[in-house]
Amino acid sequence: MPFFRTALVACFLLAGVHAYLGFHVVRRGVIFVDLALAQMAALGVAVAVVLGRHEDPLFTYALALGMTFVGAGCFAWLRSQERHHVPLEAFIGIVFATAQAAVFLVLEKTPAGPEHLKETLVGALFTMDPRHVAKTAVLYALVAVAHWFLRRPFFEITGDAEAARRRGRRLFWWDFLFYAIFGFVVTSSVQIAGVLLVFGLLVIPAVAGLMASSRTGVALAVGWTFAIVGCVAGLVGSVRWDLPAAPSVLAALSALLVAAGVAQAVIKGRHARGHAAPGGNGISRGA
Are 133 and 4 in contact (CB under 8 A)? Predict the structure, then answer.
């Protein structure tokens, strides 16, 4: 089925870029930054709808991207300021909630408001134009190249921001650059998969990878594999049971994460019992 192939390719693209960015986001402790930036992009799309320009893809994309840049500047500035022990996540949550409320208010008086609101949340995986997916692939490739050349400062700040500052890294500008590049990704991702799945693909594979290993390479490999398996399972379930695509993929990712957590707990439990059993280690034998 052509629509299924297009959705599958789109999900693979999303999984590839978001599992990597999610590693940075989770390690930096700014879990909801993707959700907030995605909602800022959705606000830009909503404004384009109100202005009657949503049929112009370039205008809509530029407006959504501009909104994400505003969010990127806010988050970079807030991280560089003394916040009197208020975590950055609190401000990110405020931005998300405010942007979500603004989307509701902006679309409230439009004739097709509920439909546009639904699209911002769940995207349009099964109705996406293959040409749009191809353009998104080119953009993601450029983002991958940028991250490859900037990998050293990005990973330094992700690993230990204060140590990077002491080495002379200007955190505001590096954070703004990271979030701005992030904005390009999120703006395109929201149009394809909606806010909810974009957030799920950012956080869930990264968490699965970090649960498996603290080593960067292993965590990324597990995250990418996890995301791809979840995307395939979710899309197949969506077609088989006639369910919305993006929520199905998100549910599959969450179910896989629960299964991975249970399996890890069982393995650790057996390992601990094996060490505690008589003869399981040197101390037991000595006793």
Answer: no
